[in-house]
């Protein structure tokens, strides 16, 4: 080997060694940061997330998809509260609401199609309109009396789709609505907390990127099988407004729900979320008591989206919760539960 060749090999080895050392150092730093977070006192450490269960039911929809449903609380309660969860979540995302409200109210929770324990639907049926029809069939089968609908994020959009297709239900059957951290449209214009030019570029490449990931979903899912420090830190920072004080157990719980959602499902529903536009359907809700809630630091469905909904519903009550992000029902359960109790009281009068 010549002197020149040995020099090139030495330089290359040094570069590879430095890069490897950098990656190792970054991994160690992340592990150290997560380790320090987990060592802090965690009041939610013993909270049984994902373990609360109700009376399980199954609904076969008109397009033959099996939906998982759970009913909790007294069957003779005058009002049923129906909870519709968000994108990549499951019915367990309503843990605190189920825990604190089921003693007093009949509660129905369901996994939206392709999420949680519900059956996978096809790509062609991964639409907000189909979710609205699913909700209609759930109500027709399991809710005979008056009810209040509660939707978080995509769940709020599901309620809007129901209002668009079955406006006759609102007023007599559906006595109240809570729209939590959701949007009536224009999600493709949100900045995600990034500079405008960066966000615009991201929106341009996102559809193609998500589509590619969806086509290789099974392979991608293998790399998502076990939670990692990066996912924990990213979710902690972006999912919660008060990230420094949020319970690590809550972060882990949400991360496990997201991780359990197949990549193909994430890809299938992404276009539906970006193309969602139900502003014209909101007038249907003006005839029933409506509560609108959003976190002040919500980057996914920003406060201006909830303000737009409130502007279309002059009688609605809008609450913007300080130091809170998109996962408001898990980050500020007391505030959400109090608002829901107040809404039900307004309905029962």
UniProtKB/TrEMBL annotation:
One of its GO terms (molecular function) is hydrolase activity. Residues 80-333 form the AB hydrolase-1 domain. Residues 1-29 form the signal peptide. InterPro entries: AB_hydrolase_1, AB_hydrolase_fold, Carboxylesterase_BioH, Epox_hydrolase-like. Transmembrane segments: none annotated. The keyword ATP-binding does not apply. The keyword Hydrolase applies. Keywords: Hydrolase, Signal. It comes from the Bacteria. SUPFAM superfamilies: alpha/beta-Hydrolases. PANTHER family: HYDROLASE ALPHA/BETA FOLD FAMILY (PTHR43194), PEROXISOMAL MEMBRANE PROTEIN LPX1 (PTHR43194:SF2). This is Alpha/beta hydrolase.
């Amino acid at each position: 080997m010549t002197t020149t060749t040995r020099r090139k090999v030495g330089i290359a080895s040094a570069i590879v060694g430095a890069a490897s050392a950098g990656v190792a150092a970054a991994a160690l730093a992340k592990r150290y940061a997560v380790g320090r977070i987990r060592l802090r006192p965690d009041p939610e450490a013993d909270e049984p997330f994902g373990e609360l269960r109700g009376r399980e039911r199954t609904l076969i929809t008109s397009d033959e998809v099996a939906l998982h449903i759970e009913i909790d609380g007294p069957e003779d309660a005058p009002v049923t509260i129906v909870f519709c969860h968000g994108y990549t979540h499951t019915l367990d995302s309503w843990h605190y609401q189920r825990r604190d409200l089921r003693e007093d109210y009949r509660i129905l929770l369901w996994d939206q199609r392709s999420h949680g324990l519900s059956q996978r639907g096809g790509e062609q049926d991964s639409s907000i309109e189909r979710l609205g029809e699913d909700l209609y069939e759930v109500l027709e089968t399991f809710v005979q009396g008056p009810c209040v609908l509660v939707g978080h994020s995509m769940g709020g959009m599901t309620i809007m789709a129901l209002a668009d297709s079955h406006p006759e239900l609102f007023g007599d059957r559906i006595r109240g609505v809570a729209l939590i951290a959701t949007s009536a449209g224009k999600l493709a214009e949100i900045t995600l907390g990034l500079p405008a030019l960066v966000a615009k570029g991201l929106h341009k490449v996102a559809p193609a990127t998500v589509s590619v990931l969806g086509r290789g979903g099974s392979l991608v899912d293998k790399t998502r099988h076990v939670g990692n420090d990066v996912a924990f830190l990213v979710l902690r920072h972006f999912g919660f407004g008060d990230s420094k004080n949020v319970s690590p157990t809550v972060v882990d719980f949400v991360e496990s729900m997201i991780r359990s959602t197949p990549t193909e499902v994430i890809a299938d529903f992404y276009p539906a979320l970006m193309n969602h536009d139900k502003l014209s359907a909101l007038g249907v809700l003006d005839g029933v008591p409506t509560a609108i809630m959003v976190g002040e630091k919500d980057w996914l469905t920003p406060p201006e989206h909830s303000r737009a909904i409130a502007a279309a519903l002059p009688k609605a009550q809008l609450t913007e919760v300080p130091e809170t992000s998109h996962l408001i029902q898990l980050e500020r359960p007391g505030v959400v539960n109090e608002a829901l109790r107040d809404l039900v009281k307004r309905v029962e009068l």
